[in-house]
Amino acid sequence: MRMKILRNIALLLLLLFSTSTFVSAQYRDNIPPKRELRGVWVATVSNIDYPKRPTPVAIAQKEQWRKLVEKLKKAGVNALYVQVRPSADALYASSFIPFSKYLTGRQGRSPEPFYDPMQHMIDVTHEHGMEFHAWINPYRATTNLDTLNLSLWHVFNNHRDWLVKYDNKFYINPGEPEARRHVVQVVEEIVNNYDIDGIHLDDYFYPYKKKGQVFADSTQFQKYGSIYGSLGDWRRNNNDQLIEALSIAIKKKKPYVKFGISPFGVWRNQSLDPIGSKTQAGITSYDDLYADVRGWLDKGYIDYVAPQLYWYIGHPQADHEELLYWWRGNLFDKTLLVGHAAYKIGERKAEAWQDPAEMIRQIKLNRKLTDARGSIFFSAKSILKNPLGLVDSLRTNYYRYPAIPPIMIPDDVKTPKVKSPKMKKIKAKPNGVVISWKPNKLVATAGFGMLPPDYYIIYRFEDTGVGNISDPRNIIGISSMTGKQHTFLDKTAVENQIYTYTVTAVNRYQKESVPSDWKVIKKELGKVKKVKFKRKKRKKKPKPKKEVIF
Q1: Lowest-pLDDT choice from 52-56, 418-422, 458-462, 519-523
Q2: Three-class secondary structure of residue 436 per DSSP
Q3: pLDDT digits (tens, 9 = 90+) for 503-523
Q4: Alpha helices, H only, 97-196
Q5: What's the whole-model pTM score?
C-alpha cells in the first residue's frame, strides 16, 4: 500500500513538473498558446463583408455565409464578431426592428422564403467550432439622409424626436433616457432569443467630430444635464448609464454571455491627463466620443476590451506598442484583446504597412504579454485577401495548432464547473481511428452548479499515458459548439503506433473539465485507453482489454 502511494505521488510530481517546464519551452519554441482568441470582424454596413451584395433570396444568403465561415475557419479563426445592427436595423427577425437593407436590398423586406438569418449564421458558426458575437451599433440610425426608403418600423418614423442630424447622417441621441432604454431592449431581445457567445460594441458612441458642425443636444442637456459640471461630463454619463444598463441586462439573463467594447485605440493623451498614454492623437475616446472605457473596466461593466490599435509599431503620434502596454496597465483584472488593422496591410501611405512582418510583430507582442489574450482583425474581407501572405503565415505558423477562446470571467467570480465526459470506445478503421464518448450524466441534468458541455476537445498522445493537455500540439480536434457531437475521426493516426486518447468537456464560460479517465491515471498507473493498429484483421478475443492491438 505504501509503495502504491509513493508511486502515485511520484506520478503527480512528474505531471506538475512537465506542466511547469512547458511554459518556458513554449516560449522558447514559439508554440502558439492553447487559449487565444483569434477573431475577425464581419462588417455588414455597406456590404463590406457580408453579404457580398443585398439579395432577398434566402438560399443565396445561406450559401454565402457558409462559404465565408469555412474560409475563415481554414485561416485559423475561432471567433466571429458579426455586425447584426448596422444602422438601427437588423440582420435577424426582430419584433420591432426592420430587416436591414444591406441584407435584402430594401429596409424592412424579409428574406424569401422567410427564415431567421442570424439563427442560421449562429448555427453554421457553432457547427464549425467558432464563437458568434453579436456586434451592434447602438446610436447610428442612418448612413445618409435618405429617409424616404426607411421602413415604417424604423426609429426615424417612430421616434423622430430621438434623432439628431449630424454629418449627413441621423443618430439616436444618447441624451434621451427613453432612447437609451430602447437600445437596451434591442440587446435584451438578442440575448433572450439567440444562442450567442457575446454582445459587442465598437467605437461609435457620440459621432466623430466634424469641423464646423454641432451635435444638437442642448435641449436635452438643459433638461437632464444641469447637475453636471460640463457638457462633456453629461455626455460621458449618458454613455456610462447605457453600458451599465446593458451589462445588467445581459448578465441577468445569461451570465456566460460576454460583453465587450472595441473603442478607439487612444483613451486620453498624457498631455491632458497624467494617467493617459504617451501619444499625440488628434482624437481620443474620452474627450471626443465621450466613451470612458477605462472607467467601464474599473467599474466592472464589461468583461473585456478590444482597443482598435490600428497604428504600426513605432508610429510617431500613436505607437502600437506604447498603446498595448498602456491598455495592459489599465485593465482592472479584465481581459485585453487587440484590434488589428488588417485592411492597412500593403498600404502605401506608410512604409511599415508594406512590410509583411509588421502584423506578425504585433501578434508576437500580444503573446509576449500574458494579459493580451488574442486578436480581432478588421475585417473578414481584408483577411481573406491574404494581404502580403498574412493568412499563409498564420495557417502554417502562428495559428498552426488549434486554440480555444480564453476565460473572460475574473477569478473571484464563481462560475459553474463542467465534469469530464466518459470514454465510450476507440475503434480503428481503414480511414483512421474513431473516438467516441458520452457526457457525464450528472452534467446533463441542470442544477447543482453545473452546466452541460458546450463542446469537446480531443487529445492524442504517443505511446501510453496522458501527457500535457496545456500543449496545443496534443489537440487533434475540437468538436462543434453545439454539445451534440460525441464522436471524432482521427485521420492522421499512423500505422503501428501506440496512442493514448482522452477527451475534455468545455462549458459556456470556457471552463475545461478534467480529461476523461484522468482520475484512473492518478490512482492506478498504466490504466489508459490506447490503440495500436495495423491494416489487417484481428483475432476475436473473449473480453475487451484496455490495450487493443489491431
Answers
A1: 519-523
A2: strand
A3: 999 999 999 999 997 433 222
A4: 101-104, 117-127, 155-158, 177-193
A5: 0.89
323 grid coordinates: 498603446
Residue 124, all three cell numbers: 453554421
Going along the chain from its start, the domains and CATH numbers come out as 31-398 (3.20.20.80), 414-549 (2.60.40.10)
Instruction: Give the list of residues 6+ apart from residue 342 with CB closer than 8 angstroms, or none.
Output: 359, 377, 378, 379, 382, 383, 387, 390
pLDDT class of 187 with cuts at 50, 70, 90? very high
**Listed residue (186, 48, 194) closest to 132, CA to CA:** 194
**Is the pLDDT assigned to residue 536 strictly greater than 80?**
no
User: Do the Cβ atoms of 349 and 19 come closer than 8 Å?
Assistant: no
Q: Which residues sit opposite 374 in a β-bridge?
A: 37
pLDDT of 335 > 80? The answer is yes
Alpha carbon distances (Å) from 237 to 136, 244, 296, 397: 20, 10, 11, 45
The Cβ of residue 324 has, within 10 Å, a number of other Cβ atoms equal to: 24
Per DSSP, the residues of 349-397 read T-GGGG-THHHHHHHHHHHHSTTEEEEEEE-HHHHHT-GGGHHHHIIII
Q: Which amino acid is at 328?
A: R
